[in-house]
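User: tokens in, sequence out, please.
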């Protein structure tokens, strides 16, 4: 080994220019590898932050669960935060001047949902009882329909359905029209009266082509029962590979039929 070392040192001294070029080449190679790795990690973090800002931070969603199932999910050791979320439905926005957005789109969250999802308050306060709502400021700015904080709003809430079909349409589907006019109808499920307690900026999940202006109400976990269902959206204590198997186990044990994942954050 000593002979090899001596021979190597001698060749390095005898070929100083080649040695210098080799050293510079190694330095540049290490710097480039480090830069590419740093760029990749930074880009991945940017994508994650962008996804959180647009869609909220969550990992697992148990769809259409009732009060007993929610309790089991909340008691699970892997649950860090429990968010309750539900698309309540659509209501006609009387007097809307935007013919492509004739509806109010009513969502509901618990207090954790207000924190985890990108809801930006413009005026007033967020709701904290089930008969309170906040409305998008675009209702006044875009639809030219004016409501004031403190107003009572009574609406018939239902699902958007195409004539002759049963599957409801969501916010990703624009208003369905043909040469004869509107092809869709509202299948009414309930009549509700709410008090407006604030206004919000247009949420990022409300696309330009979405047919409903966002309205958000509060959902009280203590008021849920075995017949009323919402989505239980979970932030995990620790994200690991076993989360898929674990969540499927929770779903099977508690009779939950559907589980979704936020793959962009997993």
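Assistant: Sequence out:
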């Amino acid at each position: 080994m000593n002979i090899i070392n001596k021979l190597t040192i001698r060749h390095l001294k005898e070929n100083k220019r080649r040695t210098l070029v080799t050293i510079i080449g190694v330095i540049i190679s290490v710097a480039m590898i480090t830069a590419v790795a740093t760029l990749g990690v930074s880009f991945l973090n940017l994508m994650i932050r962008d996804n959180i800002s647009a869609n909220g931070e969550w990992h697992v969603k148990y769809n259409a669960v009732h009060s007993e199932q929610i309790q089991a999910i909340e008691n699970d050791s892997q649950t860090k935060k429990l968010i309750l979320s539900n698309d309540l439905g659509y209501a006609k926005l009387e007097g809307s001047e935007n013919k492509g957005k004739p509806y109010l789109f009513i969502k509901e969250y618990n207090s954790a949902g207000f924190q985890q999802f990108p809801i930006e308050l413009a005026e007033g306060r967020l709701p904290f009882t089930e008969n309170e709502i906040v409305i998008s400021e675009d209702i006044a700015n875009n639809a030219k329909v004016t409501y004031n904080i403190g107003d009572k709003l009574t609406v018939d809430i239902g699902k958007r359905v195409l004539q002759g079909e049963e599957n409801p349409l969501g916010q990703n589907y624009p208003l369905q029209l043909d040469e004869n006019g509107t092809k869709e109808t509202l299948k009414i499920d309930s009549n509700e009266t709410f008090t407006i307690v604030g206004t919000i900026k247009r949420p990022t999940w409300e696309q330009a082509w979405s047919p409903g202006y966002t309205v958000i109400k509060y959902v009280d976990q203590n008021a849920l029962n075995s017949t009323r269902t919402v989505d239980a959206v979970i932030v995990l204590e620790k994200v690991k590979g076993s989360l898929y198997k674990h969540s499927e186990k929770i779903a099977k044990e508690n009779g939950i039929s559907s589980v979704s994942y936020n793959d962009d954050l997993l």
